[in-house]
Amino acid sequence: MKRILTIFAATAVTVSAMAQVKISVHETAKDQPIIPAEIYGQFSEHLGRCIYEGIWVGPDSSIPNINGYRTDVLEALKTLKVPVLRWPGGCFADEYHWMDGIGPRENRPKLVNNNWGSTLEDNSFGTHEFLNLCELLGTQPYISGNVGSGTVEELAKWVEYMTAEEGTMAELRKKNGRQEPWKIKYLGVGNESWGCGGDMTADYYSDVYKRYALYARNYSDNRLFKIACGASDYDYNWTKVMMKNAKDKMNGLSLHYYTVPGWEGSKGSATQFTTEDYYNTITKTMEVEEVLKNHFAIMDAYDPEKKVALLLDEWGTWFDAEPGTIPGHLYQQNTMRDAMVAAMCLNVFNGMTDRLKMANIAQVVNVLQAMILTKGEKMLLTPTYHVFRMYNVHQNAQFVPTDYSTGEIVSQSGRICKDLTVSSSKDNSGAVHVSIANPSLDKSKSLEISFDALNAKSVSAEILKAAAISDYNDFDQAPKVSPAAFKDFRTSGKTIKLTIPAASVIVLEVK
Ligand code: AHR
User: Fold this and answer.
1) How remote is the CA of residue 368 from the centroid of ligand 1, in Å?
2) Structural domain for 161, as ranges
């Protein structure tokens, strides 16, 4: 999608006008895929204040908590319906030794977190704390195993500790207070093994992967879904080598794609940006669609039956850390621009689930494109949180094909993307949800949404928009970006008409 447009070199941004868009929602289409809830997955790493303070404050904290988990964050995450949570990293995972995080907390070793700001890690949040959190949230755990600096035995024993009913590891787990094994489906065998996870070549890693994966056993009726470390962004060779060498030994292959819109030396500010920066961010984000398709094409060549899933297990915006914070803690604010990134991406992901089976935005609290930010005892919900909450209606719903043709955004960087994204699904009760993201900063669009067989008893909608695209929610202030009911639509026959304001996200519910 990258185009060099010299004629636009002097212009900051060119956005083609598209005042009217016709959208056809085929809610009666048969045999459509179910959108895996895991597309709405989250990621929690021992990084900055994600785990400590963000999720875990310990049972003795003055911050209200349930068994050490802060109550406000727990409640917000329950509302979000987190389908899957990846842990303990990220780069941290390949230096994490799980045995440091079990047993009495006061006896656990304290280590330097070498990846993230050299912060002291006291291991007070370990395997039990994570898996119990998942149970409280009704979330599937996704364990990211240490391949970079851990042994095959260590990973094998971790799986046994978590999932075996009997044996030495199960006895140790029971001694530490947990009788029943946990159910673990998702097991990542290494993270970014081409970089922080061991600096390996694809050929070398594919052998290493097979060795670690072999000894990660299924105990009783637990069935692991083994995920090999995949490529970064445009590294198609990694995908090719992994598929060629190891496709029969994996259930999934990962991919990481971050939106890092800045230039030389700076990733750009999360809150202070120009119109050009905004469109550069949006178009870079949307390039993920082409990148995914390119990886899919390679996978198709080796696996036409699509037995191996692709898991985009890290994605989201990555800006400069907030001034005054520790750079290695990756704490950034979150504006309406981030909400737009999330909404545009999720619309695209919903339509790619024949191969894409999971996506984990980075990260859930206080790190990168977070859902939630905390400051001591204070907590706020970000604009991105609101998109994930509004869109959670698509989780496990049946995909509904939706046709529309719209204009383009051409950014200063020469990248191009659609100036509207839409996706639809039908849930178990028959309700149809249509999510629409209009990234244009200056053009509202008049939408005519026609359904195959609309027989609506009720139509309702929610909108997320802000006075300015750089608006964000801050501590000690009334929220500037939060969803509101949207009533400005007209239903006639099989058609709903509405105008979507510039820079807004709408989710329509038709029952
Ligand atoms: O999400 C932050 C870091 O980004 C992760 O630890 C790593 O996997 C990626 O490079």
Assistant:
1) 10
2) 37-287+313-397
